[in-house]
UniProtKB/TrEMBL annotation:
Keywords: Transferase. One of its GO terms (biological process) is carbohydrate biosynthetic process. It is an enzyme of class 2 (transferase). The lineage of its organism: Bacteria, Pseudomonadati, Bacteroidota, Flavobacteriia, Flavobacteriales. This is N-acetylneuraminate synthase. Signal peptide: none annotated. CDD domains: SAF_NeuB_like (cd11615). Gene3D superfamilies: Aldolase class I, Antifreeze-like/N-acetylneuraminic acid synthase C-terminal domain.
Amino acid sequence: MKKTIIIAEAGVNHNGDIELAKKLIDAASEAGVDYVKFQTFNSKKLVSKNAQKASYQKENTGNTSESQLAMLKKLELSREMHIELINHCNAKNINFLSTGFDLDSIDFLNELNIDLFKVPSGEITNLPYLRKIGSLKKPVVISTGMADLQEIEDALNVILKAGVNKSDITILHCNTEYPTPMVDVNLKAMNTIKETFGVSVGYSDHTLGIEIPIAAVTMGATVIEKHFTLDKTMEGPDHKASLEPKELKDMVAAIRNIEVALGNGKKEPSNSEIKNKEVARKSIVAKKDIKKGDVLSNENITVKRPGSGISPMQWDHVIGTIASKDYQEDDLI
């Protein structure tokens, strides 16, 4: 099985602090993920001054009067911070990734030679944005929170028309609620996307815990994205619905185990269990003492362990034959 790409979404959980961002990179590297992902945006180009925060943002920040613009302004990463974080990722042997939320941010990330571009759920209906992403002709991952199949198809067509190969596109099933209620996960929709559009699929998770991403891998997800933080009790909009470092590490370990456990699909005895066949299976044995020349019947033969003799599946062929020698009780026939 091809290795699942695991993206640890640091997002804005750095709270605008470069040292905190580096600690997030350290935690992601230690957990063994493939990418650690941040967010690149210019607040004024992302939201208008009148835009309100989402209800979960109001609840998690404890500030209902603050505008979305004011909140995001504190969470911006400067150009210099990006370069510093990329260097830190290189030192920690982990891939840097960031989601650009405006056209200038996409250009900037391209200048930094980012090898993979992520379309967040909120931009799936943003035609100029999608066209810009597609024009880079680099691999694209598309999140689909809040979207229906028609909106996914429209976005996919824009990116394809702009020049991205279909084989370089992965569409992530997603639900844009933080945290996502289990009743709204609808994990089967991931495979609906795969069947409808013939693309690689994955899952971007906002549920609490790690069980749903693990389940997604068993269903064929090729990419898993999950928010993480150093501490869920920190101030900020996304910390509460994020994993802490130990949970992230546990999720990665479970996914890697699942990848191995899924195997090749061929049903045959494994190398580890072959040695147990003789112990666990049964053979045809003497039910009581049998003399040479006796007819073998239901009265004088039975089935017991070990499985080193004649298989009980040959029972009908043994019944009615003549004993070729003397047998004592429990001797293999």
